[in-house]
């Protein structure tokens, strides 16, 4: 496979299949079994212990593996400690003794080589087992989190945002995998330390205790550093979560930010969090630098202490080469366990945090289905609150917030049951108010796991009015839908959602306002063909929540809800005769009776007419990649993303310029100083070693003489001084490197953020949000730049200089070694080239197969109620198992390729040792024993360092790509300047006159025009309605006024200023829009209304009062500081719409644009909004993009658009007489004369 990966980019087919016992399903069932057993055993104990133990037993089939690993571990520890150390002693004494036979030398050299080989093989086998265990552990946890997500209760769902649950699955499970690799160090490190000490005692006697004393002193220091680091890390996780939450919201509400010119406010918010995050990171990395410093000094301090004590204790103790270098190689063996122990401990600490988080989630409450009974034999209880007869069409009506959607949720069992129960007989299908679309083909979205019955499928597609849309989509029903249905309009999403329900052929249909997002004629079609008495669903039980009065006479029964209770129930005629709440509702709005078939519409392309083309845009983009990559890997966001595949492939040859770009972000000064300090540190290191080798030759010089005290003190003094210098440079280098790294993080994030907020809207229409989020994410690019790259860079530099210094020392001892370096370097280079390319491919496949896991998980969390309603949990679980297994395949291959490399590298390292030993034996006549000791003990260090160097090179190459991915988004073309030198006059626009002259616009260069030369004048304070069939260009017109779309020709002049000459913010802050979808951000109510704090509290209360929200807000405990949850989830759609109205009232500019703001609200709220607009914006110019004609019948003029041209433009009365397009639309809507409407 390594060869294959070197020759061509690897695909998933090239990887090995997983063994049966490593498949997700197997692992999860074992995990569950163990978890259940543990829970039973420990019911009375704290939850905390319960989970920990079950996690440890997640993969029992590796128990034997661990046993094996342990026995090998002991072998590993014993082998390096015994032979190399003792062999080294034998070799040194051989060189020192001129009378020894040559064959002894060769035997010792060979022994050294063989023991090193045995050690390599054992160690790699151990790592293999540990990695596989870690992988199984991660799988078990990912599957458990996913399984939990399908059954979790609503209370728990509210506690965790979608981002937090995805984090549990990504970051927290990864921690366990990382820990598993080194968990055995917890017992083997102390064992290694103990063994080394015993051998040292043989060499140096009691003076070893001085060295050990130093080590013991260092342990508490490190413990203090570790706990501090943990506290900082915990705080920083919160900052990261917060930053990601805001970023998610910014990206989902980017259109609103642009329309309101709010980007600076949000940029500031993210900036503030980022400053806190980097401050935490700086503290953390400084602590890290200190602990690295302490541990790098440890072996050196230990040897200084031991040697000094050894020579001072007794006059007769002279340090000879054998003692010194055997001790030094034993001290070096001590380095590894001493260095890994704190790392393992801190990893253990981080995993403990993750364990707690996972426990809290896995142990949280499940949905309680006990309130829902499906028992046909239940006799009718006497007190039935609501009884729906089989086969009836029941409409549920009521004001905003009266509990209509809650009723539907309760029937689905999604609400918390306080008392009573619901009895359902038959299967259920559910259409939510906001359609949930999967990232799959349109056909898969409709079939939703059922088998394809072609005739029925065609019938459903036709009935749901999807045929015209299928013609528009490039791949018909096989078009890949982006995440969250990004390339469908609101109306299309709703119809797909309805088609899914109809196709599922259930017994009971719960329809939560499916007609609110579609045009009038489409709504009528859907009611006639699907929902109504003669539709596809006739004879099924249908509960239809609706605001549309016109369909009510054709329902079997109507349920009226008031404040969460059923106030009346009966047929249309009965309720009218009763004269209750329903009759009142009708009499208030009944005069629109004629017009309401216009229904609750928001065009097929739902306010995003860019989406006609965006209907093509993203899809074209998703599909064009099929040709370029056969396997068409699903990319970071699930859509077919040739783009990601392309960057990943481009990343195959990592350019040197990327390293330079990163160093540039660090700052050249910083980079140079870091390099200088590291070089100085290694110079001191070589100096101290050479000094030691010279010192050991004293034992020969002063043979049988007393060792002069002055000589002894000088030796110890210089040795100590060189060590101190080395330590000082090391600390300086580490601190400089952390400063530089933080600087780079700040610079790159700042560039990325400010650019993303300045790119044009078309970029967001064609780029899935997930892909942009990945750039900022905790586990992806910014995280890599923050934490991974600096570490990799430092380690790489250390290894590189370490190897250079070692080779130099060997060459000083035996100059012939230089000849051997050449073939060894060539061998090494080839290994590196082969491995690094394959490793990078495997890492790429890992990240490419990992993205679908998270996007599928995110999708599941957001569509939970739909999945549960249809009872498809099992199918989603299986799909999750499949994609996790795909990811496992690449992870497993990566693990094996690492072992492949390690075995070969260690072989190269062992050859270095063998060559050094052999040369020492051959040229022993002209070598001192000190220099031989130095040469071979250095060579023993080569192998692990080489291994590490390759690992770091590969890590760096893999990670530096993050810099490229970040840079790519910092170079996306921006929209026009926010503020230019030419500012509009203060108070502009004062009149509100708009002149449009021959205005043409296209979505992106190279596409067709969408508006073909519009020309019209709109007078000051005039009220103009804009109408037209779907796709006529209505919403494009608003986008042009705000310059979301730039002109391809012609101009728009407002109050004498050509809008293309001023800055975007000057323009956008001077206009007001009430958009179609009410978008809110998490934060306080006040922040949502006035993010720049420009208005006083009085003004805000006044706006709320006019928006009819004052009483609601006064009742809230925190009033204006009330926290709005993500996307405004804790307010009803109607309340969100009213908040958007309050926003507009605060702005109070001379021009107001209404993008069918009343599509999703009931008649009462609609009435409130219309009245407020009439009174408050009387002296403003108002443009209304209407889908329901009755809202614009009292306009001064109506502009009728068709295919991007103005076909009629006059007062509604005249247009009705003209018998043109407008009068046909009015007839469809049942409007006869302009006076027929009150509103």
Automatic annotation (TrEMBL):
<feature type="domain" description="ABC transporter">
    <location>
        <begin position="353"/>
        <end position="588"/>
    </location>
</feature>
<dbReference type="InterPro" id="IPR036640">
    <property type="entry name" value="ABC1_TM_sf"/>
</dbReference>
<feature type="transmembrane region" description="Helical">
    <location>
        <begin position="208"/>
        <end position="227"/>
    </location>
</feature>
<dbReference type="InterPro" id="IPR003439">
    <property type="entry name" value="ABC_transporter-like_ATP-bd"/>
</dbReference>
<dbReference type="InterPro" id="IPR011527">
    <property type="entry name" value="ABC1_TM_dom"/>
</dbReference>
<feature type="transmembrane region" description="Helical">
    <location>
        <begin position="793"/>
        <end position="810"/>
    </location>
</feature>
<keyword id="KW-0813">Transport</keyword>
<keyword id="KW-0445">Lipid transport</keyword>
<keyword id="KW-1003">Cell membrane</keyword>
<feature type="transmembrane region" description="Helical">
    <location>
        <begin position="289"/>
        <end position="313"/>
    </location>
</feature>
<feature type="transmembrane region" description="Helical">
    <location>
        <begin position="662"/>
        <end position="685"/>
    </location>
</feature>
<keyword id="KW-1133">Transmembrane helix</keyword>
<dbReference type="GO" id="GO:0005524">
    <property type="term" value="F:ATP binding"/>
</dbReference>
<keyword id="KW-0067">ATP-binding</keyword>
<feature type="transmembrane region" description="Helical">
    <location>
        <begin position="901"/>
        <end position="922"/>
    </location>
</feature>
<dbReference type="GO" id="GO:0006869">
    <property type="term" value="P:lipid transport"/>
</dbReference>
<dbReference type="GO" id="GO:0016887">
    <property type="term" value="F:ATP hydrolysis activity"/>
</dbReference>
<keyword id="KW-1278">Translocase</keyword>
<protein>
    <recommendedName>
        <fullName>ATP binding cassette subfamily C member 2</fullName>
    </recommendedName>
</protein>
<keyword id="KW-0677">Repeat</keyword>
<dbReference type="InterPro" id="IPR050173">
    <property type="entry name" value="ABC_transporter_C-like"/>
</dbReference>
<feature type="domain" description="ABC transporter">
    <location>
        <begin position="994"/>
        <end position="1228"/>
    </location>
</feature>
<feature type="domain" description="ABC transmembrane type-1">
    <location>
        <begin position="88"/>
        <end position="350"/>
    </location>
</feature>
<keyword id="KW-0472">Membrane</keyword>
<feature type="transmembrane region" description="Helical">
    <location>
        <begin position="333"/>
        <end position="353"/>
    </location>
</feature>
<feature type="transmembrane region" description="Helical">
    <location>
        <begin position="100"/>
        <end position="120"/>
    </location>
</feature>
<dbReference type="InterPro" id="IPR003593">
    <property type="entry name" value="AAA+_ATPase"/>
</dbReference>
<feature type="transmembrane region" description="Helical">
    <location>
        <begin position="179"/>
        <end position="202"/>
    </location>
</feature>
<keyword id="KW-0812">Transmembrane</keyword>
<feature type="transmembrane region" description="Helical">
    <location>
        <begin position="716"/>
        <end position="737"/>
    </location>
</feature>
<dbReference type="Pfam" id="PF00005">
    <property type="entry name" value="ABC_tran"/>
</dbReference>
<feature type="domain" description="ABC transmembrane type-1">
    <location>
        <begin position="672"/>
        <end position="958"/>
    </location>
</feature>
<dbReference type="Pfam" id="PF00664">
    <property type="entry name" value="ABC_membrane"/>
</dbReference>
<dbReference type="GO" id="GO:0008559">
    <property type="term" value="F:ABC-type xenobiotic transporter activity"/>
</dbReference>
<dbReference type="InterPro" id="IPR017871">
    <property type="entry name" value="ABC_transporter-like_CS"/>
</dbReference>
<dbReference type="GO" id="GO:0016324">
    <property type="term" value="C:apical plasma membrane"/>
</dbReference>
<keyword id="KW-0547">Nucleotide-binding</keyword>
<dbReference type="InterPro" id="IPR027417">
    <property type="entry name" value="P-loop_NTPase"/>
</dbReference>
<comment type="similarity">
    <text>Belongs to the ABC transporter superfamily. ABCC family. Conjugate transporter (TC 3.A.1.208) subfamily.</text>
</comment>
<feature type="transmembrane region" description="Helical">
    <location>
        <begin position="816"/>
        <end position="836"/>
    </location>
</feature>
């Amino acid at each position: 496979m390594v060869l294959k990966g070197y020759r061509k980019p690897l695909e998933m087919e090239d990887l090995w299949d997983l063994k049966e016992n490593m498949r997700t399903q197997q692992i999860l069932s074992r995990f569950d079994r163990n978890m259940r057993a543990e829970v039973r055993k420990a019911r009375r104990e704290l939850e905390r212990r319960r989970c920990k133990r079950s996690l440890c037993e997640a993969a029992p089939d590796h128990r034997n593996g661990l046993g094996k690993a342990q026995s090998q571990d002991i072998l590993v520890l014993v082998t390096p400690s015994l032979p190399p150390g003792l062999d080294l002693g034998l070799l040194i004494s051989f060189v020192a003794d001129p009378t020894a036979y040559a064959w002894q030398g060769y035997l010792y050299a060979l022994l050294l080589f063989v023991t090193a080989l045995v050690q390599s093989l054992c160690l790699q086998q151990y790592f293999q087992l540990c990695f596989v265990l870690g992988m199984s552990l991660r799988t078990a946890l990912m599957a458990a989190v996913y399984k939990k997500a399908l059954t979790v209760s609503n209370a728990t769902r509210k506690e965790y945002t979608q981002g937090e649950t995805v984090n549990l699955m990504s970051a927290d499970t990864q921690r366990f995998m990382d820990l598993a690799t080194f968990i055995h160090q917890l017992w083997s490190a102390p064992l290694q330390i103990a063994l080394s000490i015993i051998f040292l005692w043989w060499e140096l006697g009691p003076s070893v205790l001085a060295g050990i004393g130093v080590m013991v002193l260092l342990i508490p220091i490190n413990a203090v550093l570790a706990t501090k680091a943990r506290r900082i890390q915990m705080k920083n996780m919160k900052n990261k979560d917060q930053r990601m939450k805001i970023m998610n919201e910014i990206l989902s509400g980017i259109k609103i930010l642009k329309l309101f010119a709010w980007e600076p406010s949000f940029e500031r918010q993210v900036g503030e969090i980022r400053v806190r995050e980097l401050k935490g990171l700086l503290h953390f990395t400084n602590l890290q630098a200190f602990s690295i410093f302490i541990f790098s000094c440890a072996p050196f301090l230990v040897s200084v202490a031991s040697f000094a004590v050894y020579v001072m204790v007794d006059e007769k103790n002279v340090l000879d080469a054998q003692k010194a270098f055997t001790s030094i190689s034993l001290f070096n063996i001590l380095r590894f366990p001493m260095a890994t122990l704190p790392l393992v401990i801190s990893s253990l600490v981080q995993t403990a945090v993750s364990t707690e988080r996972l426990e809290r989630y896995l142990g949280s409450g499940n949905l309680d289905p006990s309130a829902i009974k499906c028992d046909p034999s239940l006799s009718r209880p006497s007190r039935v609150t609501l009884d729906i007869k089989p086969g009836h069409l029941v409409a549920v009506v009521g004001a905003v917030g009266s509990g209509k959607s809650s009723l539907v949720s309760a029937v689905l069992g999604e609400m918390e049951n306080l008392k009573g129960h619901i009895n359902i007989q038959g299967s259920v299908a559910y259409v939510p108010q906001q359609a949930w679309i999967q990232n799959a083909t349109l056909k898969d979205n409709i079939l939703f796991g059922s088998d394809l019955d072609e005739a029925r499928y065609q019938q459903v597609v036709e009935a749901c009015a999807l045929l015209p849309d299928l013609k528009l989509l490039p791949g018909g029903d096989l078009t890949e839908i982006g995440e969250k249905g990004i390339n469908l309009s609101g109306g299309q999403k709703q119809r797909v959602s309805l088609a899914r329900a109809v196709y599922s052929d259930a017994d009971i249909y719960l329809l939560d306002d499916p007609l609110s997002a579609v045009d009038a004629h489409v709504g009528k079609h859907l009611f006639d063909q699907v929902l109504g008495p003669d539709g596809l669903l006739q004879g099924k039980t249908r509960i239809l929540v609706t605001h549309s009065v016109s369909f009510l006479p054709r329902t079997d029964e109507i349920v009226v809800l008031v404040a969460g209770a059923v106030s009346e129930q009966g047929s249309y005629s009965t309720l009218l005769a009763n004269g209750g709440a329903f009759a009142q509702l009708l009499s208030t709005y009944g005069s629109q009776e004629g017009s309401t078939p216009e229904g609750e519409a928001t065009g097929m392309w739902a306010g995003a007419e860019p989406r006609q083309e965006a209907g093509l845009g993203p899809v074209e983009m998703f599909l064009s990649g099929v040709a370029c990559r056969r396997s068409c890997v699903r990319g970071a966001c699930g859509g077919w993303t040739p783009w990601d595949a392309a960057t990943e492939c481009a990343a195959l040859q990592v350019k040197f310029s990327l390293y330079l770009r990163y160093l540039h972000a660090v700052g050249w000064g910083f980079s140079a100083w870091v390099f200088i300090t590291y070089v100085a540190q290694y110079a001191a290191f070589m100096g101290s070693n050479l000094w030691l080798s010279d010192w050991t030759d004293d034992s020969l010089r002063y043979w049988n003489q007393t060792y002069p005290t002055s000589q002894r003190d000088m030796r110890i003094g210089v040795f100590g001084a060189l060590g101190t210098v080395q330590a000082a440079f090391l600390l300086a280098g580490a601190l400089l490197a952390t400063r530089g790294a933080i600087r780079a993080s700040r610079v790159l994030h700042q560039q990325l953020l400010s650019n993303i907020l300045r790119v044009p809207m078309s970029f967001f229409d064609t780029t899935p949000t997930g892909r942009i989020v990945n750039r900022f994410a905790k586990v992806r690019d910014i995280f890599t730049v923050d934490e991974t790259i600096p570490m990799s860079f430092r380690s790489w530099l250390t290894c590189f200089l370490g190897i250079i210094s070692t080779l130099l020392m060997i060459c000083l001892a035996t100059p012939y070694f230089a000849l051997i370096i050449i073939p060894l370097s060539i061998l090494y280079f080839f290994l590196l080239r082969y491995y690094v390319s394959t490793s990078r491919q495997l890492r790429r496949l890992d990240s490419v197969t990992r993205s679908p896991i998270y996007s599928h998980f995110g999708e599941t969390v957001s569509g939970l109620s739909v999945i549960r309603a249809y009872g498809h949990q099992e199918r989603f679980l299986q799909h999750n198992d499949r994609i996790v297994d795909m990811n496992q395949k690449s992870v497993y291959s990566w693990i094996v390729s690492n072992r492949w490399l390690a075995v070969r590298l260690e072989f190269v390292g062992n050859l270095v040792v063998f060559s050094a030993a052999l040369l020492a034996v051959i040229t022993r006549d002209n070598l001192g024993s000190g220099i031989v000791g130095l040469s071979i003990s250095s060579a023993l260090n080569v192998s692990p360092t080489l291994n590490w160097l390759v690992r770091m090179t590969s890590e760096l190459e893999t990670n530096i790509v993050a810099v490229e991915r970040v840079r790519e988004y910092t170079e996306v073309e921006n929209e026009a300047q926010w503020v230019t030198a030419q500012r509009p006059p203060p108070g502009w626009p004062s009149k509100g006159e708009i002149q449009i002259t021959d205005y043409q616009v296209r979505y992106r260069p190279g596409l067709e025009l969408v508006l073909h030369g519009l020309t019209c004048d709109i007078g000051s304070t005039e009220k103009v309605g804009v109408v037209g069939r779907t796709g006529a260009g209505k919403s494009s017109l608003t986008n042009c006024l705000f310059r979301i779309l730039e002109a391809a020709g012609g101009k728009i002049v407002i109050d004498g200023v050509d809008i293309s000459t001023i800055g975007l913010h000057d323009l956008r802050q001077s206009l007001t829009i009430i958009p179609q979808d009410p978008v809110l951000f998490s934060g306080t109510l006040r922040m949502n209304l006035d993010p720049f704090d420009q208005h006083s509290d009085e003004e805000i209360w006044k706006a709320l009062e006019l928006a009819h929200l004052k009483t609601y807000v006064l009742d809230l405990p925190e009033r204006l500081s009330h926290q709005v949850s993500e996307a405004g989830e804790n307010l009803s759609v109607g309340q969100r719409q009213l908040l958007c109205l309050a926003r507009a009232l605060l702005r109070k500019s001379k021009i107001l644009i209404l993008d069918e703001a009343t599509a999703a609200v009931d008649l009462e709220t609609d009435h409130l909004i219309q009245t407020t607009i009439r009174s408050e914006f009387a002296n403003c110019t108002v443009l209304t993009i209407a889908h329901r004609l009755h809202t614009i019948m009292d306009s001064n003029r109506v502009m009728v658009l068709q295919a991007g041209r103005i076909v009629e433009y006059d007062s509604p009365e005249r247009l009705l007489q003209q018998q043109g397009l407008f009068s046909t639309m009015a007839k469809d809507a049942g409007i006869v004369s302009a006076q027929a409407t009150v509103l």
